[in-house]
User: Which sequence fits this backbone?
């Protein structure tokens, strides 16, 4: 059971499902031309067919070989950093650059093992602050600002 | 091209030209010296900031970061036994033992001179080989171009790290991503699923930075925080005297040649060149007994070869539009973003730009000597900076860079998504270079295939009947794909 339910198999299965779903979606769209080379879906279908074929081979290899990905050293750390990075890239547009960057650094540095609050605080304020000063107030190429102030 | 040289020198000697030459080399050396960043991430971080510059300074800045980072990797390799870049891994083998003997300055001196010589020779190779190759490729029509891209992609995939199947899958994902958005012939929308942000396709830069830089941060977060060896005592670079070079010049020449040849081959890269050159040095050097115990020939073999790759890898990138490795794929993406189409016509249509790039690359390699000597003292304390600060800064810089390009928050989402997908794929041993190369070459591959089919009334086999060049290139592509399979089968039967 473990041979089938490991990370490599799951990722390869995911790749296969995505490719099949995308291939199926090519038939759901209608286009003005359906001739071989004229059709907008001609090339993507070739690529998706190859992707599906390769994913099947990779999936069989993953099941047969039973080699595992490098174990994650700390699920908590990678979980925090993944979620923080995704949330960070999501909120910059609406909340501005500075505040999300400070929060991101305050979360990320301790997750990476920096325990000195002074270092964490200084880095979290100085690095985004310096970038904000450089782009918004020196180069005149503004990064997004928050809903609270046009200054940051 | 030579007639454009005075104009090119004028651009390089302008304030902007001088600034990007020096700043780029300095940045490259410092970023390259930081373990965990590497040349690709260094170039990816700097890339968005080049978009406000004009074409020539932007490309020169990236070339300077590229060449500087390859050299900078040797500083960490010698002083803390941790290669700043994968290309410098072989330098550790002799560099660190030499540094432990109290000869850190001299070890860095050997590395600096070997890097400069390797880089300069590769610049000369680039200057002479790229225009010749481009002149041949000028005769190519859509069918030959299609076959050429096919060959380039198969070479890259077949030599990419990990399995061929995984490399090919990454290539297909990259090509597929390039098909999202408007169709190149009819302009009809594909795979946008009603999202207008995807009408222009995925932002190449956001994907590149996501899969290389952001996924690297996730990779680092997923493994144990690495412990590095103690920083050895270091009082600045000591250049080896002429007397010390006696008996070692042959090894230097051989390493430079290996680096150049491997650099020109698509997909191999500097790390492969450094290890092949090191192995050759250990086999043929008169000082081979000392290899692994702090022998200067070991440092020379590795450093001359990895820097010689830089110019070699740019030959197919500039002349044919086919990247030599992941870094040149990023370069290719930059050229495209600057409205330059790399390939045979580039040399003919933009002689001044090409002359500036080539002359600039030569100067960058000359600058490695004084700047390397100056910066190695500064870079040494940077090696003590903890990984946590670097990784956090990388994410923030990537976000700034991506937003800065188009001011579109959607690009940040694409970067985040690409980072997570890149992380998941890299954990399974899927290489990222074919994905980016597929995304860069995908549009031309599609356009030339469809144009060719329209020309030949849909008969694919007719591609090769009246087109001997296309036939040879296609056969070479089949050969490049079957070679690893045959090798794997032989290995299987031997076992």
Assistant:
């Amino acid at each position: 059971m473990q041979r089938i339910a490991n990370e490599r198999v799951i990722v390869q299965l995911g790749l296969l499902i995505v490719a099949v779903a995308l291939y199926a979606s090519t038939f759901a769209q209608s286009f003005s031309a359906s001739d071989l080379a004229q059709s907008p879906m001609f090339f993507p279908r070739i690529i998706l067919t190859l992707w599906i074929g390769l994913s099947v081979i990779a999936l069989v290899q993953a099941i047969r070989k039973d080699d595992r990905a490098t174990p994650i050293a700390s699920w908590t750390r990678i979980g925090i950093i993944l979620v923080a990075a995704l949330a960070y890239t999501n909120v910059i547009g609406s909340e501005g650059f500075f505040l999300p960057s400070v929060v991101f650094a305050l979360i990320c540095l301790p997750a990476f093992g920096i325990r000195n609050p002074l270092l964490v605080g200084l880095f979290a304020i100085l690095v985004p602050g310096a970038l904000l000063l450089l782009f918004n107030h020196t180069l005149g190429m503004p990064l997004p600002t928050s809903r609270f102030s046009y200054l940051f | 091209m030579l007639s454009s040289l005075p104009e090119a020198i004028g651009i390089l000697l302008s304030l902007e030209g001088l600034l990007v030459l020096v700043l780029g080399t300095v940045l490259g050396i410092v970023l390259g010296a930081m373990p965990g960043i590497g040349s690709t991430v260094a170039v990816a971080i700097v890339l968005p900031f080049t978009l406000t510059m004009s074409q020539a300074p932007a490309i020169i800045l990236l070339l300077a970061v590229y060449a500087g980072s390859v050299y900078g990797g040797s500083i960490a390799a010698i002083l803390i036994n941790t290669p700043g870049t994968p290309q410098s891994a072989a330098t550790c083998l002799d560099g660190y033992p030499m540094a432990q003997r109290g000869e850190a300055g001299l070890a860095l001196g050997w590395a600096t001179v070997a890097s400069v010589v390797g880089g300069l020779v590769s610049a000369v190779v680039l200057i002479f080989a790229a225009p010749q190759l481009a002149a041949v490729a000028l005769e190519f029509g859509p069918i030959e171009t299609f076959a050429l891209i096919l060959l380039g992609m198969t070479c890259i995939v077949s030599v990419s790290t990990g399995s061929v199947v995984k490399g090919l899958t990454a290539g297909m994902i990259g090509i597929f991503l390039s098909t999202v958005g408007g169709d190149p012939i009819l302009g009809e929308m594909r795979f946008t699923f009603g999202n207008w942000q995807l009408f222009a396709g995925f932002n190449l830069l956001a994907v590149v930075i996501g899969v290389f830089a952001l996924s690297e941060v996730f990779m680092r977060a997923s493994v144990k925080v690495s412990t590095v060896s103690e920083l050895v005592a270091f009082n600045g670079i000591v250049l080896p005297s002429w007397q010390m070079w006696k008996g070692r010049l042959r090894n230097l020449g051989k390493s430079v040649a290996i680096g150049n040849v491997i650099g020109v081959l698509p997909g191999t890269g500097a790390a492969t060149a450094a290890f092949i050159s090191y192995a050759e040095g250990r086999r043929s050097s008169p000082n081979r007994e000392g290899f692994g115990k702090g022998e200067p020939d070991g440092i020379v073999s590795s450093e001359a070869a990895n820097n010689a790759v830089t110019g070699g890898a740019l030959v197919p990138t500039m002349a044919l539009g086919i990247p030599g490795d992941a870094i040149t794929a990023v370069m290719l993406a930059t050229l495209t973003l600057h409205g330059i189409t790399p390939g045979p016509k580039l040399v003919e249509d933009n002689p001044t730009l090409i002359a500036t790039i080539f002359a600039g690359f030569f100067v960058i390699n000359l600058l490695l000597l004084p700047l390397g000597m100056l910066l190695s003292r500064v870079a040494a304390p940077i090696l003590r900076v903890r990984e946590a600060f670097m990784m956090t800064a990388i994410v923030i810089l990537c976000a700034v860079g991506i937003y800065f390009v188009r001011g579109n928050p959607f690009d940040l989402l694409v970067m985040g998504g690409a980072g997570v997908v890149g992380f998941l794929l890299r954990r399974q041993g899927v290489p990222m270079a074919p994905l980016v190369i597929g995304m860069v070459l995908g549009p031309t591959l599609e356009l030339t295939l469809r144009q060719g089919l329209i020309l030949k009334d849909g008969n694919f086999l007719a591609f090769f009947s009246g087109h001997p060049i296309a036939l040879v290139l296609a056969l070479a592509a089949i050969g490049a794909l079957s070679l690893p399979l045959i090798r794997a089968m032989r290995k299987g039967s031997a076992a």
User: Anything to note?
Assistant: Chain A touches chain B through 64 residues (CB under 8 Å). Chain A has a mean pLDDT of 88. The two ends of chain A are 53 Å apart (CA to CA). Residues 75-138 of chain A form one domain.
